[in-house]
Amino acid sequence: MKDERMFLNQERVVDFLNVCIRSGKAAEAPGLLMSCIGEELAGVCHRYYQSEQRPAESVLARYANLSPTDGQLRRALQRLLAEPAPEGTRPTLFHSPRHWLSVYKALHFLHMIDDEYGCMARMAQRIAKLYGDGSPAVPCRRDDLAKKNIDKPFCLPLTAWEQKHASPGLSAYWQIALLFLQFLHEECVSKCVCSAEHPQ
User: Fold this and answer.
1) 168 — phi, psi (to 5°)?
2) In which band, very low, low, confident or very high, does the pLDDT at 47 lie, cut at 50, 70 and 90?
3) Disulfide: which of 19, 57, 110, 153 matches 164 by Cβ 3.0-4.6 Å?
4) Distances (CA, A) of 65 to 47, 111, 137, 185, 196
């Protein structure tokens, strides 16, 4: 016979029922048992939701289904590259060629680029193709991407960046990736709104 237990300790339940029977409360035993289980379960749930074990809602979830066009990618990148740095420390937030790793991680999160051998070269090629005859204000180079992607936590996927975004040095990269996804989202939403207002 298959054992259907998932949460209950059968031996403890049997001991409880035996105590009830010996105390002359056989008829009340099921109700008493359920009351004890309910109180214990409520306590477990209360402690769980008050602790740090409760899974935090991912901010990435709202961006997971984005499927931008090349035009939307280009416009989002232009906005990202023009974003001013906080507190005027530098002219722009995105100022290093290595910051392209944030864009790569965002595109990989959206399944728009792979992480197989040669992926950094393909990333640089994709950006070059997006810009055509021009070039971005900050160059996107395979070597810069590859060197930054060697060590943890930078080599981890964007979902891991979210969990470790407070790690030394990662916060700026996480901020850039998140801002890029936000700009992409706005571009995609703008397209949907325009399509709804001007149906074919």
Assistant:
1) -55, 125
2) low
3) 153
4) 34, 9, 28, 10, 19
Helix or strand holding residue 107 (H, E): helix 100-109
DSSP 88: G
Of 17-26, 31-40, 55-64, 136-145, which one has max mean pLDDT? 136-145
Backbone phi, then psi, for 143, in 5-degree steps?
-60, -40
Average pLDDT across the chain, whole number: 84
Q: For residue 193, what are the CA distances in angstroms to 103, 180, 186, 190?
A: 25, 20, 10, 5
pLDDT tens digits for 122-154? Answer: 999 999 999 988 889 999 999 999 999 998 899
- In tens, the pLDDT along 90-109 reads 788 999 999 999 999 999 99
Q: What one-character-per-residue DSSP string does 61-87 give? A: GGGTT----HHHHHHHHHHHHHPBPGG
How far is Cα 183 from Cα 107, in angstroms, rounded to an integer? 13
- Report whether the peptide linkage leading into residue 30 is cis, meaning its omega lies within 30 degrees of zero: no
Q: What angle do CA 157, 82, 90 make, to 5 degrees?
A: 90
